[in-house]
Amino acid sequence: MSAAADAYQALRAALGAMEGLALYEPGDPVDPPGVVLMPPELVWATGCATPTTARLLAIVVMPRDEQSLQRLLDVTPRVAEAVDQADGVDAVVERADPGSYTAGRDELPAYVLTVEIAL
Fold first, then answer.
1. 62-79: per-residue pLDDT in tens?
2. What are the structural domains, with CATH classification, of the chain?
3. Which of 32, 45, 57, 89 would you label with 105, given CA atoms 20 to 30 Å apart?
4. pLDDT per residue over 79-116, tens digit each?
5. Taking the complete model, does pTM exceed 0.70, yes or no?
6. What distance in Å separates the CA atoms of residue 76 and residue 1, rounded to the nearest whole number?
7. Do residues 88 and 64 touch, judged by C-beta distance below 8 A?
8. 113, 99, 37: which is closest to 69 by C-alpha?
């Protein structure tokens, strides 16, 4: 497997082990609360034959109700910590932007985390 694939699998394992959150990939039916892990963008440093950095989005989604924002504010730092502490990968959350995620016909409240991975 490539370094990027290994890193992606390490993040899947770390996020999939979080209690109370389901892990999804794009196209999966989403039943919040959960995290949707998007495929990584790959970056090559000048002169390198293989990617040196990967960047991906981890989207924290919650059901839409009066507690959505509070739950997002409580859970998002836990997700960032799980990324930072994932075994076998040098990953860090660069930022978390408020947003939404379309699941079927629903617009779910979300935080979109930008994750950078050194390969």
1. 999 999 999 999 999 999
2. 3-24+31-118 (3.30.2000.10)
3. 57
4. 999 999 999 999 999 999 999 999 989 999 999 999 99
5. yes
6. 30
7. no
8. 99
